[in-house]
Amino acid sequence: MTTCRICDKNFEPFISFGDMPIANGFLAEKDFSDEYFFGLATGFCEHCNMVQLIDQPAREMMFHDEYAFFSSLSSGMRNHFAEFAEKLQAEFLISDDPFAVEIGSNDGIMLKNIAQAGIRHLGVEPSANVAQVASDNGVNTISSFFDEALAAQIIADYGHADTITSANVICHIPYLHSVFAGIETLLKPTGVFIYEDPYLGDIVEKVSYDQIYDEHVFFFSVMSVSKLAAMHNMEVFDVEHLSTHGGSMRYYIAKKGSHPISENVARQLQKEQQLGLDQANTYDELRKRIEKSRTDLVAILEKIKAETGKPVVAYGATSKSTTVTNYCGIGPDLIDYICDTTPLKQGKFSPGSHIPVKPYEDFLADYPDYTLLFAWNHSKEIMAKEEGYNKHGGKWIVYVPEVKIT
Length: 406
Hints:
This protein is an alpha/beta fold. The protein has two domains: 71-280, Rossmann fold (3-Layer(aba) Sandwich); 282-405, NAD(P)-binding Rossmann-like Domain (Rossmann fold), CATH 3.40.50.720. 35% of the residues lie in helices and 23% in strands. It starts with a strand and ends with a strand.
């Protein structure tokens, strides 16, 4: 039995992925013998409907001064956050002297738009190297973890916030009660907290189990977020389904009664009931579908190697790929290398599976016949970029929502 992080009730895991390394812990060969592993397992709490990891490594092991993820490397994400910043300015940052806070602001990809508009702002980013990039680009940033104590300090230094935002970060934080308490305190009476994260409904529908890794301690639904917000005198007043990261939900949260409730909330709750997101048997079925996905993917890779002997390359040294390679037992025998544009990852090896990571230029210099698409959540952007590979006759191996060669 495990105790729920949200409601303190007991629940059971519905799937174990076995021993798993730090998902973004790309490493040098000399560090193989000291690599850290933990048991990756996920459970569903029937009491508050929250899906969550059973165990999570210490936050300092995941977010530190060598953190190798910079949001601005993706043009698609730059456009996404520029549009979000415009929405904030038009609808919520409209007081005489507005103040915007972002939790987990990364390299300032969103807040730089707010900064350029001359609006008071503060980014809170725990990874020091990433926070420094934001600061260098003119975004007011502190390197810290957000919680109730930090919220009080922000109020003392800057006053209360019109908006608090976060993207692909809240699901990383195990101590959500401290975070939500801090948010409720930091917001102005009509202030809004808006965040987006990978959506549980999409994970269930698409069998996108690679969203499950060490950083993602929670997998949110409107059901579970509504119950969590209510514990802190807040409520979800609107929701917006997004295509980013393979399917995300943007939650609009405010103090109870301060904003009218959109029909979108009831509509999405009804969809979640139809999907069975509040039923334990839904997750038992998900486990079976995940196991089949693993079997099918390994079978395709083994068949290509056995019948053609040709190299198979992977595209995108993503955190998500760590779950796939380690859960499926995919190593250098099946994947020759992973190409990636992130300098910090190049010349290193993938966590656990120890597949070499090479510069993207290696992929361009010698197109492989087969490429496993780890960065499937950016597939639209990638397919537009890789017209040359497609015209060359290269084939993509995908595993979301189903395993196939395209």
